[in-house]
Amino acid sequence: MYSRKLEIFIAVAQEGSFSQAAQRLYISPTAVKKQIDRLEDLLGLDLFQRSSRGVKLTEAGHSFYQDSLALIDQSQKAIHRAKQIAQKSPYLIRLGRSFLNPAQDFFPLWHRFNQHYPQFKLEVVPFEDNQQSILETIKHLGQGFDLMVGACDSLKWLEYVQLLPLKEAKLTCAMAKNHPLKGKACIQLEDLNDQDLIMVKEGHSQSNDALRSYLKSHYRSIHIIDAAYYYDLSTFNRCEQTGAILLSLDVWEDIHPSLITIPLAWSGPGVPYGIIYSKEPNDQVAKFIKVLANLH
Q1: Which tens digit of pLDDT belongs to each residue from 151-206?
Q2: Domain count within the chain
Q3: When you count CB atoms within 10 A of the terminal residue's CB, does the N or C end of the chain come out lower?
Q4: From residue 25, how far is each of 4, 15, 30, 31, 94 by CA, in Å?
């Protein structure tokens, strides 16, 4: 907030000695003398009377000293006021939350972040998991709300957003509670033979496409049924009402009360899961994401 030369000048005036000021400031006496000489040259004034016993302020130097103290005091008060304003005027992070994206994994991370940055506040904004409108929501992320938390390997979504990964969501099988496979601890791929399997359409999800390709090559008796590019609650209702198996994720195991979710024995990729935010976030969201990346 103020010149280093000014700080050195005040130290010399108060100590009455270049060497004593140097000890106080943890620099050499030569460096102190050079800074004072430069300050006097800059101002065109003699600030000190030099003698073998030390230095003493001139009349002009005394006036400059009093004003320098006032300047530093005002600078410190300005910093203090700015910090108080920052505390009272919180940065607001708006979190979108929906039925399929409840953001439960986000809140422990938020609490850790907020301990270090209490000026940030969180607003939870509800939105709908609607197959027809979700892409528009993603395109305009940063307008209605700043970020959401969920699974994301959608090629279309990633044209508009970026992801801070928190973990990998594992592929699972969701099915009605009376399904013949309900007692399995883990669904093997061969268990899916002769079953109806609902999956996201080809060409939209890398993890789904990898599994689909493998099933088509090795388990041709599985009847794959295309779902929409995006799941919503109607997708889970369809699974329960038709008796088909739904390719799902472990993070969605409690979505539908009439369905059970069983792990799938699949060694291929899962789905990246994390904080989804705009490719062009505002400054406060960018700072928030940067700090979270270090905390996680």
Answers
A1: 999 999 999 999 999 999 999 999 999 999 999 999 999 999 999 999 999 988 98
A2: 3
A3: N
A4: 11, 11, 12, 10, 46
Label the pairing between strands 245-249 and 171-176: antiparallel
Scanning the structure block, which residue is given the tokens 């792990």? 263
Residues 131 and 278 in one domain: yes
pTM of the model: 0.68
Tokens of 13: 């005036």
Identify residue 96 by its one-letter amino acid code.
G
Pick the last residue of a domain from 70, 85, 100: 85
Residues 9 and 62 in one domain: yes
Per DSSP, the residues of the chain read ---HHHHHHHHHHHHTSHHHHHHHHTS-HHHHHHHHHHHHHHHTS--EEEETTEEEE-HHHHHHHHHHHHHHHHHHHHHHHHHHHHHHS-EEEEEEE-SS---TTHHHHHHHHHHH-TTEEEEEEE----TTTHHHHHHTTTTS-SEEEEE--BTTGGGTEEEEEEEEEPEEEEEETTSTTTT-SSB-GGGGTT-EEEEEPTTSBHHHHHHHHHHHHH-TTSEEEEE-SS--HHHHHHHHHH--EEEEEGGGTTS-TTEEEEEB---S--EEEEEEEESS--HHHHHHHHHHHHH-
* Residues linked to residue 197 through DSSP beta bridges, in sequence order: 224, 245
Please check the confidence at residue 4 and state whether its pLDDT lies above 90.
Answer: no
